[in-house]
Amino acid sequence: MKRFLERCLIRLFIDNLMLDKYWRCHQKSERSFSVRGRQFHICARCTGILMGYLLSPVMYLADSKIITTTFVTFTLLMMIDGFTQLYGLRESTNLLRFITGLGWGITFFPFCVVFALKIFYLIKEC
Questions:
Q1: Rg for the chain (alpha carbons), in Å?
Q2: Is the pTM of this model over 0.90?
């Protein structure tokens, strides 16, 4: 099972030339995961965001208030994590970067749908 997971991660995040070409990321080695000594083309936070995008259809089952609350929460957590690190208040970890990115990525597209529907219904009522 471990070998299968490693092969999947290598294909998704290391050998994927499209990801390297089209996903803009700083790719700092200390902020990126690696498998078998090979670094991912994207950092831990971007890895979480991308994984979240893939898992986001699950969130469409949730209530719009839960989607909105979760999106706002993870947006704030990601901002706090990024800014406290940027200003040298503390050093974040790859696990924390991944978790905040994952939470944000899972909720981003469902939040956009909820937001668009609310705007559509507001316009329709006018």
A1: 17
A2: no
Distance from C-alpha of 62 to C-alpha of 106, rounded to nearest angstrom: 12
d(CA 30, CA 25): 13
CA atoms within 13 A on the CB side of 65: 0
Across the chain, where does the E strand assignment appear? Answer: 34-35, 38-39
Residue 123 has pLDDT above 70, yes or no: yes
CA dist 60 and 38 (Å) reads 35
pLDDT digits (tens, 9 = 90+) for 67-103: 999 999 999 999 999 999 989 999 999 999 999 999 9
Question: 33: which 2 tokens?
Answer: 């995961």
